[in-house]
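Hi F.,

I've been meaning to write this up properly since the lab meeting, where we talked about keeping a consistent format for the predictions we share between groups. The idea is simple: the sequence comes first, exactly as it goes in, then the structure tokens exactly as they come out, then a line or two of notes. No screenshots and no reformatting. I'm using this chain as the first example so we have something concrete to point to.
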Amino acid sequence: MDRFETMTSFPDLLRSWISQNAGDLASDGVQAILTEGPQDRDRRAVWADFDSANRLARLTVWDTGEAVLALADAAAENPPVTQQLEFASSTDLERAVASAVAWVAE
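Output, unedited:
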């Protein structure tokens, strides 16, 4: 069982991950900002923006386990590349966060 397994809400898992790792990311030149979605919706959501000097990533997570990962190059004129995800466990969320951070840190 990993350290997040006791939580059941994917938004809570992402919130916790950002809280625990934002300092380390900042020291590596990656800014992480968490935004809460509106509370009056049927599905709760949060999104994390990961930004560096050249790249951007946004991971949006709903309490249903649905997620969207968007990756963009700040200098490119191309639209962001998006990927629809479905989380079944905290490990899935951690993989998506790792992908976002790896993209931005390149």
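Notes:
The helical segments are 10-27, 90-105.
The longest strand covers residues 55-62.

If this format works for you, I'll send the rest the same way.

G.
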